[in-house]
Structure formats: C-alpha cells, structure tokens
Task: inverse folding
C-alpha cells in the first residue's frame, strides 16, 4: 500500500510534529510512504475568500503532482474537502478533469484512511488520560467523518473518552473569517473552549490543525488547563512511537 | 439602507457586550432547536421529505413563468385580483392605488417579511394610513421602531422583561413581566383595531398554482382576523412562493413548522381561495394579491444560485448558526438575516451594497445540514464571495496579497522561504506573531523553521543510512 503524503500549510509550517506522527502511524500499519516534493498549498484560503481565478493554476499544479499516486493522505479534513469537493467549483482545464476525478476518489483524510481504507478498527496502545473530541466542520459536514476518529480513540485501552457538549459546533476559526470578524470569532472560540473545560477532559483531540491552533491559542492565552492534541499525535503517543 | 462592514463590526461589538441580548437569542434558538430535534427524531422519513420538497421547488423555480401564469389565471377565476410588481416601488404604487380607491384609513397587518422587504409600513404611515402590526412579536418590534431580528420570531432578541418595559413606556401600562398579562395587554389594544380596520395585509407562505389559492400559517389567529374581518384583504407574495398543487402542500406543512418553531403543526392553517361569496356575504369584499419580483426572476435564471429561492423562511438556519446565536439578526443589516439572509442580501441589494454579508460566516455548514429544503448555503456563500471579488468590491489591497500568495504557492522554494524566515525569527523571539484582532485574545501558533519537509527528508536520509549500515553489516558477517 503506497501512501503519498499531502501536508497542508499549517502542518508543514506550524505543526510538523503532528504530520510526523501521521507518518509513524501509517508506517506502523504497513504503508509505504511517499513524499511528493514541491507540494505547497491546495488553495483553500484564497478560495474561501472568493478568489477562484487566482488559484486555478495552484489547483492544476496540485492535481498534476498527485495524479499518479495510489493513495493521497492528509492530516486535515478541510484541505481534503478542498481537493475532493471544491476543486469542482474551479474552471480546471478540461484535460485535467479525469485526473481531478481520480484524485477526488483517492485523496483521504488521515482517520478516514485508517478506518475506511486500511480497515484498521483501532490501534490499541495506552493513553491513561481523559480526552474529548472536537468535530471540525469540514471534516464532519463536508466529508461526513464523524465516527472514524471516535472509533480510533475508543480503541485505546485506558483512555477516558468524554463527549463534550455540542462537539460539532464551529470553533470560530473559519480561516480568514477569524481575522475579518475577529470579535465574533473569539466569542465563538470562547464558547467552544468553555465546552471543552466543562467536559473535564485533559486533552481536546482534533483532526484538523487549523481548529486546533485556534482552540489552543485561546486556551493558552487564558491559562486554561486543557490542552489540544492532533489525533495523529494521540495515536503515536498511545503506541509509544 | 447602508450596509457597511464597519457598521456591521460596530454592531457586532456592541451586541457581544449585550449579555441580555445574547441570553435572549441563545435561549430562544436552543429551545427551538431542541423541539425541532424531538420531532425530526420521530419522523423516520425526514430526509426523504427534504429531498422531495427540494425537487418540487426545483421544478417550480425552473418553470416559474408557467406556474405563475397558471396561478394568475386560477386566481382570476376565483375572484382574486392579481397585480404584478417588478420591484418594491411598483409594489408600493399598486398598494397605494388600492388604498386610495377604497378610502382606506386604517390597516391591520399580519407578519410578512415580504412587506418588510418593500418597506411598506413607513410608506403607508406617510400616506396617513394607520398601520398596525398584529403578530405579537412584530407588534413589539413595531413599538420599538425596529425591524424583526428573526424570520419567524421577530422579537426573539428581547426578553420578557424587555417587553414589560417597552409596554410600560409605549403603552403607558403598569410594568409586568408575566407573559400571560403581557399578552392580554396586547390583545386588548389589538382587538378593537381588527374591527375598525378597512384593510388587512398579509404575506403568503405557499401559493397553489393549480388552484389559485394561497396559504398563511400562524399561531395567534391574528392573520385569520386580519384577513377575514376588514372589507379588503391584500396579500404580498414573492413569486418564488408557488407550489404546484394542493397535493404538495402537506409535505411542506410537515417540514415548515418543526423547522421554524419546533411545532408539529401550527395552530392555524389558513387557505384563502377567493373573496366574499355573494350569496352569504361573509368575508372581505375584495382580495388582492401582489406578486413581487424585486430581483427574483434574475436569481431564478442563475442555475446555481436559484436554489436560494427554495427557502420557505423557517429560520432553522438562523437558530443553528453559531454566529446568529452570538449576535442575533440585526447584525446582518437587512430584513433577511442569518445564513440564508447572507445569500439573499447581495442578490437583492446588489454586490456592492451586500458585499460584506457572504463573509459573515465561518462556512461551518450547520445551516445546510438543518435546512428543510436542503439549500447548500455555504456553497452559495462561496459563490457570492467570488462574485463580490470579481466585481472588484473586495477590500483594497486584498487582491494583490492573494495574487502574490498564489504566485508563491506555485514556487515551492519561495513558498517555503516565506515561513522559513518567520520561523527563524521566532527561534530568537519566542512569541507568536501579532495578528491584528485575532491575536488579542488568542495566541497564534509558532512557525517551525525546519518544517515537515526538512524533518521528513532528514529522517528519510537517516533511515537509508541505517538501512545501508545494516546491509553492510549483514554482508560482513
């Protein structure tokens, strides 16, 4: 099983450790890792801000880079959603339509890949802590990935998994939204963090670095005890990798 | 009308500090959501209902001309006067004419967003016609000279203590916060007006094309009284409100009340199928219906965005929206608010006027998930954002930034440099970079100058070296 890594911007530049954890887990389940050098961004920040024309070359470049891979796996739901779903809203060159369709069918978010493609029901391991899980919006609603991460968490032997209130309510990040309407975004993050705190969990697990950066930023800034953790880091830690 | 991002931001800032408002909005939306969920859970074919309703509306909007013609013809047969208004001004002129011809001095109104859309109340008041809202929420909002803050619950942003104070100030009654007593106060004021009014104005929830009849649903009987007691009934309807036949009505009546107020059904379902029947002489002498386009046929012509016309104005997307829940409906600056409002504002008011609205969303998608009509609201918001940008109405300088960024993203070495440098700086200055606004209450993550790529490639090299050593080792032994 050959897995080409798609490492989104935030993972590349802010949370490389989580991406490394993903590599460890993928190797652990026997995948052969392939890194496509020269990859950059999928174009999502510009797309969400209304710039479509500008990112067509980015999307076409992305499709060409990954077109011949068996599987493409990324530690982010929103970036996968961009490629799988929103590339269809771009005027991609007709010559690349087939490649775009193929890519949409073989690009997977990390937990989705583990559970649905690699048929891994859980990795076991040990993590004797209380954790809760935040459903990232694109992951949950665009890709329908809700159960897969929970299944992986529950399979850890001694983890205490607590569902927080409204685990699927937006954390307030929304990319450029968090800058454009910062006050509003912060109010939303505050609410999310309150639910995390009230759950009593030590760690808020997530599968998208962008939400985690936002949540972590608030928790840290306000001296809260709860910490955030990418699910790849959780799995790697529980297996001692 | 002046919708500016700066005034929106200003409003949001004030709203976020208004705990009273936020509590009222939060409580009301949560209650509606819980009640809705209880009903949806008891409706195993809910998804099927949504799909069917979507396809019915799809058909109607794609063949709007035919359905409208059929509706007009059937209305004529039923003695309902049909008037066509291409825009708000024409609608007001038509209504003025009817008002003048019939010497109308006072009007009772039941809640109608479409009449808000054409600013009917101030227009009628200026004509010297006493115009009174009779839906309790709308009545309260009218007393305050505000616009509704929710599609189905106009005074959702107010607590009952607020209402008590408003009644005390505006009506000169003793303060009470007992909902029952408040209702009695309003009822006493309104009852007399129903009997005196010359004309009743209503909106339309659904119009039946094949029968020339229309449906108004409600809970307070005020619509029933407004439509039945005065000698003239005038309804204002957006042309998208049509459904093909009466057979389609139950489906929509199953979807709308649970999504709106969390009710299985509303208390009253009024079907208007004509004017006074001459033998018995009950009901209004004249029934008029104003069919308002006001930009709708242009929206209907857009293959994608026409889906925004499927909206049945239930307000579920408002209730579930994490943004609406924080600041309420007035933040959006127009009579259609919340996620669906954010799609309608630029389409109705123009891309320049409505340029900020599609951006007032984190694109979380909860609206699409809950919408009984399955309108892909985030999808349309994205499309409209693109239209705002293409029309040149985005923030100054933003385009150049994204163009530069897009250039860098096509040149991996340069792209890496842009984060390598901040990463290096942060090694010395171990603090998150200040990001305006964002940073005030949140720390931004730290850049990692090595990045994943470097780490991975280094690790790869090490693994190879190790593998080589192992191999050599194997060969020598």
Result:
């Amino acid at each position: 099983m050959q897995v080409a890594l798609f490492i989104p911007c935030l993972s590349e530049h802010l949370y490389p450790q989580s991406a490394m954890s993903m590599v460890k887990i993928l190797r652990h389940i026997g995948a052969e890792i392939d890194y496509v050098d020269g990859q950059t961004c999928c174009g999502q920040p510009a797309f969400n801000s209304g710039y479509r024309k500008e990112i067509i070359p980015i999307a076409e470049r992305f499709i060409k880079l990954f077109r011949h891979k068996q599987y493409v796996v990324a530690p982010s739901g929103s970036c996968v959603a961009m490629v799988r779903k929103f590339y269809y809203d771009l005027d991609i060159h007709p010559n690349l339509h087939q490649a775009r369709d193929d890519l949409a069918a073989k690009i997977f978010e990390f937990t989705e890949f583990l559970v649905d493609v690699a048929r891994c029901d859980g990795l076991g391991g040990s993590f004797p802590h209380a954790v809760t899980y935040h459903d990232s919006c694109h992951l949950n609603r665009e890709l329908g990935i809700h159960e897969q991460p929970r299944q992986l968490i529950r399979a850890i032997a001694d983890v205490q998994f607590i569902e927080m209130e409204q685990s699927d309510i937006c954390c307030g990040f929304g990319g450029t939204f968090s800058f454009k309407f910062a006050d509003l975004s912060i109010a939303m993050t505050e609410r999310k963090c309150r639910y995390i705190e009230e759950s009593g969990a030590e760690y808020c697990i997530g599968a998208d670095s962008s939400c985690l950066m936002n949540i972590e930023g608030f928790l840290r800034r306000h001296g809260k005890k709860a910490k955030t953790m990418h699910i790849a880091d959780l799995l790697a830690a529980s297996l001692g990798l | 009308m002046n919708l500016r991002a700066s005034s929106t931001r200003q409003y949001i800032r004030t709203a976020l500090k208004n705990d009273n408002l936020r509590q009222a909005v939060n409580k009301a939306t949560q209650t509606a959501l819980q009640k809705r969920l209880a009903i949806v859970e008891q409706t195993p074919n809910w998804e099927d209902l949504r799909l069917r309703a979507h396809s019915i509306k799809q058909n109607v909007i794609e063949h709007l001309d035919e359905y409208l013609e059929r509706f007009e013809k059937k209305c004529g047969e039923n003695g309902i006067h049909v008037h066509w208004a291409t825009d708000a001004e024409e609608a007001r002129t038509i209504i003025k004419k009817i008002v003048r011809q019939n010497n109308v001095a006072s009007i009772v109104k039941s809640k109608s967003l479409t009449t808000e859309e054409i600013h009917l109340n101030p227009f009628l008041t200026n004509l010297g016609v006493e115009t009174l809202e009779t839906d309790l929420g709308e009545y309260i909002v009218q007393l305050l000279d505000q616009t509704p803050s929710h599609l189905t619950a106009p005074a959702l942003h107010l607590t009952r203590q607020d209402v008590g104070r408003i009644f005390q100030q505006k009506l000169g009654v003793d303060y009470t916060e007992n909902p029952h007593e408040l209702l009695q106060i309003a009822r006493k004021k309104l009852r007399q007006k129903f009997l005196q009014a010359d004309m009743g104005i209503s909106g339309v929830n659904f119009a039946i094309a094949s029968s020339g009849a229309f449906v108004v649903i409600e809970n307070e009987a005020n619509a029933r009284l407004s439509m039945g007691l005065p000698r003239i009934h005038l309804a204002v309807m957006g042309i998208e409100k049509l459904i093909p036949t009466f057979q389609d009505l139950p489906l929509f009546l199953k979807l709308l009340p649970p999504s709106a107020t969390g009710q299985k059904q509303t208390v009253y379902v009024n079907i208007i199928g004509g004017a006074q029947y001459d033998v018995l002489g009950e009901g209004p002498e004249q029934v008029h219906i104003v069919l308002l386009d006001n930009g709708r046929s242009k929206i209907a012509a857009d293959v994608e965005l026409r889906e925004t016309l499927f909206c049945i104005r239930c307000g579920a997307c408002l209730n579930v929206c994490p943004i609406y829940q924080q600041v309420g409906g007035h933040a959006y600056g127009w009579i259609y608010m919340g996620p669906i409002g954010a799609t309608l504002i630029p389409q109705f008011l123009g891309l320049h006027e409505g340029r900020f609205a599609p951006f007032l969303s984190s694109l979380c998608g909860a609206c699409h998930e809950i919408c009984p009509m399955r309108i892909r609201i985030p999808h349309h918001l994205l499309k409209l954002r693109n239209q705002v940008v293409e029309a040149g109405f985005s923030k100054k300088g933003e385009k150049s930034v994204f163009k530069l960024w897009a250039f860098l993203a096509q040149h991996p070495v340069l792209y890496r440099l842009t984060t390598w440098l901040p990463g290096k700086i942060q090694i010395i200055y171990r603090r998150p970079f200040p990001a305006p606004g964002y940073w005030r209450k949140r720390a931004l993550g730290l850049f990692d100058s090595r990045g994943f790529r470097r780490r991975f490639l280094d690790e790869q090299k090490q693994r190879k070296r190790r593998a080589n050593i192992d191999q050599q080792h194997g060969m020598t032994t």
Summary: Residues 399-476 of chain B form one domain. The first strand of chain B starts at residue 80 and ends at 85. Chain B touches chain A through 65 residues (CB under 8 Å).
